[in-house]
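Lecture 7 notes: from sequence to structure.

We start with a single chain of 219 residues. Read the sequence below before looking at the structure.
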Amino acid sequence: MPQQRVQFLVLSILILIVEISYAQYKKIDWEERDTWMNVPRILKLARVEEGNAVADVGCHEGYFTMHLAQKVGESGKVYAVDVREDRIDKLNTYIKDRKLQNIKTVVGDYDDPKLPNETLDVVVVMDTYHEMDDYMKILGHIKNALKQEGRIVIIEKFKKHMLNTSRAEQTEAHTLSLKYVKKELQKAGFTISNEIKDFGKWKNESDKTIWILVGTKNN
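Now the structure, written as tokens:
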């Protein structure tokens, strides 16, 4: 067998092993996350229903996207947005392998999630808002994408040792307090319809408390 063919076969086998290992890791990681995230309660708070059009902004590799897709069903639509093409590529592979038809992936900009106007019932931003530099501009785009009475759901973790620090100090530490985001949502034209200051612990770590804000688009 020619050496080049042998090298190609070896490389192909190695790639296959890596892909299988990654898929197994993701499955285990997502199943473990389900034990502390309480996804059913989040979906209930967001009032996500079958047939809804929703978005997962900052979807990473699709953990919450998959839960949304299952909830809205075949008659619904999920827009999965991330600024990193490598994450979207992995999610596209996952979607293709499972022949899912109700998810549309979007490579967003850092100041624009590129969502269709006045189309969405719910937009979820999970563990991503603290990374947004142009957060007011993004909130404006999200508001434009929502239908009347549409909802934005922001889920973040707050690190207890960052209490009484500035917004800039918090985001530098990859965390953010509910109090800052609440004011920003109101400034952007949302009415706070639900506020949960303690939704449990992120990864069951005592220093990281999950909080949730639900904002409704004003008329």
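The CA atoms of residues 160 and 207 lie 5 Å apart. Keep this in mind for problem set 3.
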